What we know:
Blueprint: E1 10-16, E2 21-29, E3 35-42, H1 47-67, E4 73-80, H2 83-86, H3 89-101, E5 106-110, H4 116-122, H5 143-162, E6 171-175, H6 179-191, E7 194-198, H7 202-211, E8 216-217, H8 221-226, E9 231-234, H9 243-248, E10 253-254, H10 267-273, E11 277-278, H11 281-284, H12 287-295, H13 301-308, H14 311-325, H15 329-345
Parallel strand pairs: 3-4, 3-5, 6-7, 6-9, 7-8, 9-10, 10-11
Antiparallel strand pairs: 1-2, 2-4
InterPro entries: Aminoacid_DH-like_N_sf (IPR046346), Glu/Leu/Phe/Val/Trp_DH (IPR006095), Glu/Leu/Phe/Val/Trp_DH_C (IPR006096), Glu/Leu/Phe/Val/Trp_DH_dimer (IPR006097), Glu/Leu/Phe/Val_DH_AS (IPR033524), Glu/Phe/Leu/Val/Trp_DH_bac/arc (IPR016211), NAD(P)-bd_dom_sf (IPR036291)
Keywords: NAD, Nucleotide-binding, Oxidoreductase
Organism: Blastococcus aurantiacus
Amino acid sequence: MDILGSGHEQVVFCSDEESGLRAVVAIHSTxxxxxxxxxxxxxxxxxxxxxxxxxRLSRAMxxxxxxxxxxxxxxxxxIIGDPRTDKTEALLRAYGRFVEALxxxxxxxxxxxxxxxDLDVVARETRFAHGRSLAYGGCGDSSVLxxxxxxxGMRAAAEHCWGQPSLAGRTVAVAGVGKVGSELVDxxxxxxxxxxxxxVDAAAVDRVRTRHSTVRAVADTAELVRTPHDVYAPCALGxxxxxxxxxALPARIVCGGANNQLATPDVADQLVARGILYxxxxxxxxxxxxxxxxxxxxxxxxxxxxxxxxIFDVARRVFGAADAEGVPPVVAxxxxxxxxxxxxxxxxxxxxxx
Length: 354
């Protein structure tokens, strides 16, 4: 694997034999500030697979944080293991010491397999753990504003396609109703949308249908993709959009909370060819990092929510630019993020007194 050719500033391998810690921290960019990104705890099949995920996710965080208007770069960490059996206090604290050793270049938070309570443990060893529980002065569950941001992006996409920033009367297919997906369902039902959902965890589906009796459920993602709907919302793990899925989608819009939704870069062009508007995941799911970043200033949910509401306006800019420039929305979003990195990042070259 060509780590040196990936464009990353730094990749750190962390190992503590006694606690069983095996982790990788990838810092993609600190042009706008410290690299913020969550810690994913996952049983990767190989070390190469873990490194590849860290590299891919950290690059996406650079673009996500830039589009969100945050003074933060992009990073990500992965811990290799099964969080259900391998996660211990000793392991999390050992990980915290490695994060501390980076001196603030990397700020960690929650991701798949890690939770607020885990970050409380990590924070016992480092000043650079965020997304902590409310009891410890943190921002709590960031899935709330992640879903809120996805909803704002979906409203912008609806306006772009149908002239009104509402999902009322539209059918939205949500793949994955865990932390983010279930919150998104709540917002969509309140907006008047019709919902069809699926999840590998039957209990998660049951919880959603208990709250909303009108929500329909199907057996799996393959069936969901074939079910008539207007908006497809991938809210589980990445790689949800491959050539076969795009070819089968009846949706006019794809907008969901999952990271790295495009299985390969050319899928963006395939979506355009089919007339499907894709809301880039790293744009619309930035509500969580906005919530986590606000914790650094003494958390205010109202302040963080107001900032996450701005995802609507950024999405409108991206869709408009994509049309004007004749490019897929992911290209337009990348250009917008890169321009901010260039224009604001260069300010670090202006020397200040002292």
